[in-house]
Amino acid sequence: MSLRLLSLLFLVFFLTGCTKQSTVINIDLPVNDENILENNNVVSNENTNATSDATNTNTNTNTNTNTNTNTNTNTKEPVTAPVTVEIPTKLELDVAFAPQAPFGNWNELNEEACEEASMVTAAKYFLNQPLDEKIMADELVKLDAWEKNNGYKIDLSVVQTVAVLKDYFNLSAKVINDVSVNRIKYELSLGNLIIVPLAGRELNNPYFRAPGPIYHMLVIKGYDSDEFIVNEVGTKRGDSFKYKYDVLINAIHDWNPDWSHYEVTDEQMTAQPKKMVVVNK
Questions:
Q1: Domain range holding 164?
Q2: Most exposed among 66, 250, 273, 274, judged by the fewest C-beta atoms under 10 Å?
Q3: Distance of CA 32 to CAs 29, 37, 39, 44, Å?
Q4: Tally of structural domains, the chain
Q5: Nearest CA among 99, 137, 157 for reference residue 273
Q6: How many Å apart are CA 234 and CA 113, to the nearest integer?
Q7: Helix, strand, or coil (residue 91)
Q8: Mean pLDDT computed over 24-31
Q9: Does the pLDDT value for residue 71 go beyond 50?
């Protein structure tokens, strides 16, 4: 085979590969979302008749006597418009991993620390700080003490998770009600991380201790053609763990802060609304 032919084949292969590195998706975004105007990946903004969407829910945390358990949510839905966005075909953010039970220590604190471990994971990523099992163990103890001093219970809803991310970690975070494959991909393409609340037993993770947690949280950090890539803090094998799109989406359900941790059923959990937390620095 001649050198010229080899060069031509290489060029065709290179150009073909380049064309497959991005894809176009359609999503609805709030019309006042700065990303509609500022995101270079936006292909078009069809500002037609606006529709009501539950994205970017405005949340107000009312604190009384240094207690955050009474949290009200402003459910007013923003006006949205359809947007066509170009995103990477595949994406995985470089997020360090450590499980919620460092060194396999499933003590009383770590047993219920999926929310805290997910927040520590996101914080270390955006603050550009290292994370390993020793660091996770230390951070969980400190965060648990802070939450108890500020009136939080064992389990956290997404609204409460946002409050902790802001007040304790000084991160930017918001609740999104538009829980869809495309919206998650879009947020990740902006460099955000996603923390999702879950009916844990719906995940059917083979590494969970049976029957699995009724309520769970984890961090979504990427995606490929048919799976989300996550930091699954509920198992030591959770680094870049993959869940099928439909499995993860179907399992997403928020916690009701009025519930008692010890009296919730699987049926109650799966009846809860779908919400997620978008985190940035």
A1: 91-280
A2: 66
A3: 8, 9, 13, 15
A4: 2
A5: 157
A6: 9
A7: strand
A8: 89
A9: no
Q: Are residues 78 and 105 in the same domain?
A: no
Q: Cis peptide before 82, with omega less than 30 degrees from 0?
A: no
Both tokens of 128, joined, read 């550009």
How big is the CA angle at 215 (ends 105 and 154), to the nearest 5 degrees? 65
Please report where in the chains the tokens 């529709």 appear, as a residue. 51
Measured CA to CA, the distance from residue 273 to residue 202 in angstroms comes to 15
**Distance (Å, whole) CA 87 – CA 83:** 12
Cβ 233 vs Cβ 119: under 8 Å: no
How confident is the model at residue 57, as a pLDDT? Answer: 38
- How far is residue 141's CA from residue 110's CA, in Å, rounded to a whole number? 9
At residue 22, the 3 state secondary structure works out as strand
Q: Which residue type sits at 201?
A: R
All residues at 6 or more sequence positions from 221 whose CB lies less than 8 Å from its CB, including other chains: 92, 93, 95, 188, 193, 194, 229, 230, 231, 240
**Does the pTM of the predicted model rise above 0.85?**
no
pLDDT of residue 6: 55
CA distance readout (Å), 212 to 110, 153, 198, 229: 14, 20, 11, 20
Rounded CA-CA distance 24/27 in Å is 10
26 and 165 fall within a common domain: no
Same domain, 129 and 40: no
